[in-house]
Amino acid sequence: MTAILGSEALSSLMYVIAQSLIIPVIAALLIFMVYTIIQVGGILSEYSNRIKTDVNEIEELLNSISTQETPDGIKEVAERSNLPKSHREILSKIAVNSNLGEKSREAFARKLIEAEQINAAKRIEKTDVIAKIGPAIGLMGTLIPLGPGLSALGSGDIASLSQNLVAAFDAAIVGLGAAAVAFTISRIRRRWYEDQLSTLDTLAESTLEALQNAKKKTKTNGYQ
Question: What is this structure's pTM?
Answer without folding.
Answer: 0.80
